[in-house]
Amino acid sequence: MTLILAWKDKRNVLVVADTAVTRTNVSDQSVQDALKKGHLTPAFGEQLQISKEKMITEEVLKIHNIKNKLIIGYAGIGVVATDVINYISEEIDSDFKLCDLCALIKEAVKIYGSTFTMIVGVMAHKTPVLFTFNESNNREFIFYEEYVPVILGNKKNDDVIQFVSHTLVDMFFYGKFQVSPDRKLIMACSLFQGILIRAGFLSSGVGGLVTGAFLNRNGFHWQKDVMYIKFDIEPEKALKMDDPQIIFPKSKIIFQVYRDGVLAAFPFDVYKKLEDYKVLYNYVESSVQNKAAQDFLNRWRQKYESEIISKIKKFDFDFLIFLCVDKKAPNKMTFASKKSILAGKRMEWENGVPIIKISKELSREINPMYAEYFNQFHWLPD
Predict the structure, then answer these.
(1) Is residue 43 located within the same domain as residue 112?
(2) Whole-model pTM above 0.85?
(3) How many domains does the chain fold into?
(4) Distance of CA 256 to the CA centre of its chain
(5) Is the domain of 24 the same as that of 139?
(6) Which of 34, 209, 230, 346 could form a disulfide with 252 if both were Cys (CB 3.0 to 4.6 A apart)?
(7) Taxonomically, which superkingdom (predicted)?
(8) How far is the CA of 177 from the CAs of 183, 225, 247, 308, in angstroms?
(9) Do 47 and 153 fall within a single domain?
C-alpha cells in the first residue's frame, strides 16, 4: 500500500512518496532482530503496526532514479514493480526516445506482470513529461499537463489527500510561492508527512517517512538534507504566551540525509548511538534476506557513514522544518534554511542530547495557533 503524489511544471517533474510496506514474514528471525534493535520503529513516533499475521513498517524508498534520466514511483506489489523498474534500467538505451520507453514498459510487464501502478517522469527535448502506467488496471498510459496533481495508491480518493494535493499544486501554479524545486519538494514532503501522521494512515498501510525527488534537464535530484522538529502543542496555553517550553512540549528531532539512492534517518529519541541510524532504499527485501542488498549497503556505509555521523553531530542540514502534528492545531509548517538558522538561533549538544534554543520572537512565528488558515507554509527569511 502506498501514497504517491507527482506533478510537473515548466522545468521539473516532482514526486513525493511514503515508505510504508506490509510484510507477512513477522516470525522470521531477521525481522525479530530488527524489531529488537528499533530499526523498524517509525521515525516520527507513529505506532508500529504489528500482529501475528502481518506488520506495517517504514522500510522502502518507492522513488527510483534510472540513470539520472528517469524518475519512477510505484504503488502496488513492490517486488513486481521493482522487477519491472530494474528491467527498464538494464535495457534502456542512453539516447532513448519516449516511444522506446513506453514500449520497454509494455515489454517488462509481459514478463513480470502488472500488479502495480507507476508514475514516470522524463525529459523530452528539454521539456518535462509526466505520465502514469496501469492507473486504471488496463496497462495503458495517461499523460498529464502542467500543475495537475497525480495521485496513486490506496488513499488516492481520500478527501483530505485530494484537497491538500490540489491546494499545494495550485499554490505553486498561481505563484504564491516563487521558490526553487528544492524548496517546493521540501514543502510537499513536510505537508504530507504531517497529514499522514495526523490522520493515522499507517494502520491502513500508508505512511512512515515521506520522501521526495525531482527531475529536470540537469538530472535527478533527491530532497536536500533536512532536520524535522516535530512537536505537539497545548493550544490554550500557546495562545496566551510565547514561551518555547509551552509551545514545543514533547518535541522530537528527526534528521534525514540522502546519498546515492539511500535515505539515512536518525530519530534522536529512538537510537542511543549515532551509528544506529536507519537506512531506507529501493530493495524490497530486507538486507538480511538479500545478499545483493547486504553488499550494496556495506559499500554504501563504507563510503558515507563517517560523513553522515559528522552531519548529525554538527546539525549540518540544508533545511530545518518545524512540524506540528496536534490534531487540534492548524497544520502550519515553518521552514528555515541553514543560513537563517545560523543567523537567528543556536543548536548544540548537552549531555548527549540535542538542545534547541528558540527565541520568543521566533517561537511566535512557528506557533501554529497564529496561523492565518489551516494549511499554512511559512518560510523564515534568509
Answers:
(1) yes
(2) yes
(3) 2
(4) 10
(5) yes
(6) 230
(7) Bacteria
(8) 9, 21, 27, 31
(9) yes
Residue 260, domain extent: 224-382
Q: What are 245's three cell numbers?
A: 517550553
pLDDT band for 206, please (50, 70, 90 cuts): confident
Say which amino acid occupies 121.
G
Tell me, yes or no, whether 196 and 255 share the same domain. Answer: no
Same domain, 235 and 216: no
Regarding whether 231 and 160 lie in a shared domain, the answer is: no
- Which phi and psi angles does 313 have, rounded to 5°? -60, -40
* Contacts of 253 by beta carbon, 8 Å cutoff, 6+ apart: 227, 228, 229, 230, 267, 268, 269, 354, 356
Answer with the residue of higher pLDDT: 157 or 90: 90
Helix (H, G, I), strand (E, B) or coil at 81: helix
Residue 117 CB burial class (10 angstroms; 0-12, 13-18, ≥19): buried
Residue 88, Cα to own-chain centre: how many angstroms?
23
Q: What is the pLDDT of residues 76-99, one digit of tens each?
A: 988 899 999 999 999 999 889 999
- Helix (H) / strand (E) containing 122: strand 116-124
204-221-8-206 Cα dihedral, nearest 10 degrees: 0
User: Among the three residues 190, 223, 256, which one is the final residue of a domain in this structure?
Assistant: 223
Distance CA 197, CA 44 (A): 8
pLDDT at 288 over 60: no
Same structural domain, 163 and 248: no
In the structure grid, which three cell numbers stand for residue 268, read together? 534522536
The pLDDT tens digits for 228-243 are 988 877 655 655 555 5
Contact call for residues 40 and 59 (beta carbons, < 8 A) = yes
